[in-house]
Specification:
homodimer, 368 residues, alpha/beta, Rossmann fold, 2 domains, eight-stranded mixed β-sheet, elongated, DNA binding (chains A, B), DNA_methylase_N4/N6 (chains A, B)
Chain lengths: 368, 368
Amino acid sequence: MTKPAKGAPVLPLDTVLPGDCIEVMNRLPEESVDLIFADPPYNLQLRGDLHRPDNSRVDAVDDHWDQFDSFAAYDAFTRDWLKAARRILKPNGAIWVIGSYHNVFRLGAELQNQGFWILNDVVWRKSNPMPNFRGKRLTNAHETLIWASKSEGAKYTFNYEALKALNEGIQMRSDWVLPICTGHERLKDGRGDKAHPTQKPESLLHRVLVGTTNPGDVVLDPFFGTGTTGAVAKMLGRNYIGIERETTYRDLAARRLSRVRKLDAEALTVTASKRAAPRVPFGQLVERGLLRPGEVLTSPRGKTARVRADGTLVGEDVKGSIHQVGAAFEGAPSCNGWTYWHFRRDGKTVPIDRLRQQIRDEMADRPN
Amino acid sequence: MTKPAKGAPVLPLDTVLPGDCIEVMNRLPEESVDLIFADPPYNLQLRGDLHRPDNSRVDAVDDHWDQFDSFAAYDAFTRDWLKAARRILKPNGAIWVIGSYHNVFRLGAELQNQGFWILNDVVWRKSNPMPNFRGKRLTNAHETLIWASKSEGAKYTFNYEALKALNEGIQMRSDWVLPICTGHERLKDGRGDKAHPTQKPESLLHRVLVGTTNPGDVVLDPFFGTGTTGAVAKMLGRNYIGIERETTYRDLAARRLSRVRKLDAEALTVTASKRAAPRVPFGQLVERGLLRPGEVLTSPRGKTARVRADGTLVGEDVKGSIHQVGAAFEGAPSCNGWTYWHFRRDGKTVPIDRLRQQIRDEMADRPN
DNA sequence: AGCTCGAATGAATCGTCCC
DNA sequence: GGGGACGATTCATTCGAGC
């Protein structure tokens, strides 16, 4: 670890520092931090209210700290805090930033402009995202993290084997499926509402810190919020430094951190869960060209239906999913379309389930 | 479709145009294209001093098609081709770009700078990516697409129900699991090697075009390569315009396209949105005797209102349309009266929307 | 205690038409 | 173009009430 020169500022470990993150970082000794994890404001630019189909109102992120006047203002802010972060980062240190499409392109471009060297972009695929209530866009089901070293050629920390172990013996990929932060983990305010609008799940920080830091490293989070980075760092035996402007969040973080205990090595072992057979939408067979739009499927009793480009079927007087059309043909309340429908290949009649199995086999070879 | 003014350039449909995409786009009529799909060079071999601004023009790109002197040169190139693309895009048109972490942050930022309005970023999660052989980083298992309208508030095309059908009845998410282009689909050169280094899978384009264009739309691809965009567009009954500088790729694309057949109309028909269904005034239910004046309707929470002869409702202290009275009862800004109100028949509680569906079915049987 | 069912909720750039 | 009316639209998970 770099030792500060005589008279130089000292690195305050395992504390939450109040104030603006740029000013606070500028008072810290240069090249003293191993990892920076930053979850900056996203600049969401929300307009009106949004309601669910049941008319309940969506609790939006309308906090003052997420408001910027323009892209130029947001870029200036990004430039300044990244520059301050860069100064305190050790030469072989690394940085993680997280964002959504609202801000992540500006984050990534500025990282590159300042000479950071992007190692991976990582997609946090949310297993339970909020749906798109109006049906006007795709479900916004992921956020993006960028992992970068301080410069090209720097010797960053990467615990390849640890991440491989976390992933059941297979090399960790750049897409991580993790649930959003809910339930007991989600900090509440006095009235039982969420204490912070954008609290990140500890599982996400767990993977980041296990994969790219070592025990004893110093991890700094300039947008500390309610302290998820600190909580996981402490648990994993890393040192943390949090910076947070809002008193409310700082107090919550301090209380939270006081309750966290460092895990012993044995407790850090993760139990792997068996995953169920992945769901394969019928439409994927069409997209992948395993079945052509217009192709005729037959039922065991000789009924026929044609495949459409969106993965629905059209039979006589009926259209819908493979299950719906099958059920209608049989006059049954339900029907497993996968085993009901067949197609012809090389003179043989084959159930479409064979094609689903083919896709599942591909996924099993290279799971996650 | 916008008709070109007398003497204005004509839109060449279903062809592959030779030349530099910026020059070629600048010769096309403005506001004439419905969708642009762009897979620009990835700038994979970045080197050089990032602090030395390189003001060289796009033409300064050297012999290798994916090499640029610096981020500045890449940004200038991005700015120029996006500007040309923007000019030929219809006001309600949209653009897709695809990239990796090497270039996508610069693409996204420049899209925003030019006034494009990002609708989603989409992660193409590769089910069979190339592993990271040296174990120094995460497996780079995805690429990023950005979907943007020409401006905020523009009426872009989004076939919500078709994508939902492709995904077995659950709304499509922003992460798409699709295999990379291999096997028969991968075009080979004379020696049996891959003909193009970054050929995209047709499944990816299938989802893009089914979801965000309609049959007959004009789809332009300024970096056409071996013509995946054109092949899927032709198959799906969309018109394509490809631009490609390299003769080799153009020839391969032309041969490929000549073999593609357009699907028949039925296969192209896609599950439609309810928004397209004919409007049925509530009063028509009363006129037709499906509901009697004076009849009592109930809400899910037990509120009641009575039907009047003119198709309005009267509740306690409120009268007006089914929507207005529902909204007033719920204290909500708006309410869909069709799903909110129920009536009783044969001892069962039925939403009035059932009656509207009955009328719509009759209209479909005997269209007028 | 165990089960079922309903309510609540999450970083969201979430209408369209007609007058 | 502004304002008002119509009316389209949700997935996974957790927690608590009620039985």
